[in-house]
## 1
Amino acid sequence: MRIKGIQLTLMIGPVFGIPVSRDILEALTSIKVDTHAGDTQSGFELNFALDKRSPLHTLFLVTGGAGIPLVRVVIVATVNGTPDVLIDGVMTHHQVEPGTGGAPSTLKVQGKDLSSVMSYIDFSGIPYPAMPLFARAALVIAKYAWLGLVPKVIPAIVEDIPIPVDRIPRHRGTDFDYVSLLARRAGYVFYIEPGPVPGANIAYWGPEVRVGIPQPALSVNMDAASNVETLSFSFDGTARTQYTIDIVEPTTKIAIPVPVPDIGILRPPLALRPAVALKEAPLPDTSALNPIRAALYGLSQTAAGADAITGQGTLDALRYGHLLKARGLVSVRGAGLAYDGLYYVKSVTHNIKRGEYKQSFTLARDGLISFTPVVNP
């Protein structure tokens, strides 16, 4: 499928995707890809026009789930000669909707990224003696090297190494559930980043990366220079909460409330005036944890509500000239003193049809007013 300035490549196959035939590309009517930050799985949806002699009957309807353990789907967008893997995943669901008025039937194929494969089997009970959080995460991810997953695991800020005579951590649930649980305990995120080439993926377990070179600016209210169709912001002054954790003094067994430190040690601020924590609350059940585990739990809960500003918008990729990517920074200009500046891209949805490439997105930041005097175009 070709769109002015953008070429799309679709790869489908058992376990490893291969480029599809021209007949299948001609039957493809639309593509939707959802990419999220955090531990939410990314997903995709393909819509095909289905006639009685279509090879899609063999590719999806017959083979999907019958004798072949998984059907892999890779979607690549090439912009100005640079390929960008939108998603590398597996089919999880398909359905056929009969056509009306002589129109062909529609085949809808849905799926998720490769983290879906990590959700197939429950491994509850496997012991991990004397292993810190990051070591357990790396060991679990290593099982999936055959899918092209390369682990990128960052040790926690404060490591809690369990002593075997005291406790032995055990696996809980599926691999995806357990690795995501470990990430939340450390105040981290876990997701699978497709690319940089088709068939390769990075399984990232670490803090949200809110540093680096920002993507080309999103311009609003700038007449001919505007490159977004819609962009709105909302500020929630009650989003942040100052939490306290109870640390038990070993001699007197008295619980001492200790404020959770600033989340800035996990991620740098993006605004000159971060939102003030108007609420204060104790975190329950922290007195039963050791100080390190209690601190990690406090940081994870503080990180979950640190963003007070949310931006929602849509753009035309052809006018923008690039593909906006989730899990990175982007500049905003033209929105005014309070909302201009750098934002973290929380999610991006790609909506692709013949001759059209739209993106909807969600931005997040911790406060008002940019701390950078100039926004790069």
## 2
Amino acid sequence: MTTLTCKIPDELDARLEALARQAKLPKGKVVRKVLERAVPKLSRNGTAFNLVAGLCGSLSGPSDLATNPRYLEGLGE
């Protein structure tokens, strides 16, 4: 495991200590849990579709421009 050192304001440290006390966990473990939730895991085998899957169906218009020649008028001239 790698060690990370950073400076935080006293007020944030007090909140972190209170949270750690309440959870009965060491401050380091609380910080690791928060970082784990805040920093997304990188997917090495993700596809372009997976990256935009949430956008699919969010636009209105014809479902497939290639099926209707009218939508292709004027292209390639």
